[in-house]
Amino acid sequence: MNNEDDLLLNLHANTVCFFGIFAFMTSLAQQTVKVAILDLYNGFPNQGMRGIRAILEEFGSENQLQLTYDEFDVRRTAHVPDLSYDVYISSGGPGSPFDGEGTEWEERYFNWLQAVLEWNADPLKQTKKYVFFICHSFQMASRYFNLGNVCKRKSTAFGVFPVHIVQSSANENVFDGLKDPFYVVDSRDYQVIEPDFQQLKRIGAHILCIEKDRPHVPLERAIMAVRFNEYMIGTQFHPEADAIGMSMYLQTEEKKATVIENHGFEKWKSMIEHLEDPDKILWTYAHLLPNFLRQACNLKSVHVLV
Question: By C-alpha distance, which of 161, 249, 248 is closest to 210?
Answer without folding.
Answer: 161
